[in-house]
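Run log, item B.
One chain of 283 residues. Sequence copied directly from the ordering sheet:
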Amino acid sequence: MDPRVISRFRRNRGALAGAALVSFVLLLGLVGPWIAPHPPAKQFRTELLEQGLPVGPLEREGHLLGGDQLGRDQLSRLLHGARLSISIALLATAIAVFIGVSVGLVSGYLGGFVDGALMRLVDIVLSLPFLLIAIVAQKSLDASGVLFISTLLGVLSWTSLARITRAKTMQARALEYVEAARALGFRGPRILFRHVLPNVAGPAFAIGTLMVANMILAESALSFLGFGLQPPAASWGSMLSESQTLMEWQPTLTLFPALLIVITVFGFNLLGEGLRDVFDARL
C-alpha cells in the first residue's frame, strides 16, 4: 500500500476512531459466542414465565443483563446476535461490492452499447422499492437464513457503487500509462486488472465500508418487521422486534440491541468517511 495513504490514515482522527469502534464490534462478533455465559435459546425462571412476567434486567443471579420475555439470557443473545448481524452485513456488502465493481469496470472501460445497457440496468434496479422487494422475495421463497438474507441485500444494493466505479474507470482509462499499455498490445482484461482496478480499489473499499453500516440497518429493519432471521436465531434486529411490546415495562430489552446497532453503524460510517478522505475519493 502507498505509504502516503497510510500516513493520511494515521492523521485522520475520524478514521482512527471508526477503526477502533469497528475493531471492537468485529472482535465482539468473533469471540462473542465463545464467551457468552449461556446458550442464546435456553430459557430460565419458568415460574416467572408462567405468570407472564419477563425476567428483566434487575434479575441478576448469573445473568448480568437479565433476561427477555421468554427468560433467555439477554447478554448471551446480544453476543450471539453480534456474529449474525455482522456476518450478514459483511457478506451482503461483499456481494454488492463484487457486482457493483464488476459492472462499473465493464461499463466504464467498454463504453458504447455495453455502457448504455448496463446503466439502464442500474436505473431499473434503482427504481425498485428496496424494502418491498426484499419482503416479497422473503415471503415468496419462504427463506430466512443468513445466506439468503445476505444475498438478497447484496443484489439490491450494488447500483451506487457501480456508478462510482464506472466514473473512476472512465477517468483511469484516459491515463497515459493505460493508453501506453493499450498501444503495446495488451488486451482488455490485463489492462483492467493491472492498471484500472488499482485506481478503483481505494474508493470502492471506502464506499464498501459505508455500505456495511447500511446493511446493518437494512437487516435490522427486515428483522424488526419480522421478515429477517426467524426465532430462535438472535440478531439485533430480531431482538428489537421481540422487545417492542415490552418497551414500556422493560426498556432495557430494547436499549441494549439498539445501542449496539448505533455503535456499529456509527463506527463503520466514521471509518468509511475517513477512508474516503484518505483515498481522496471525490464522490
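Observations after the first pass:
- The chain has a mean pLDDT of 83.
- Residues 15 and 273 are 7 Å apart (CA to CA).
Flagged for discussion on Thursday.
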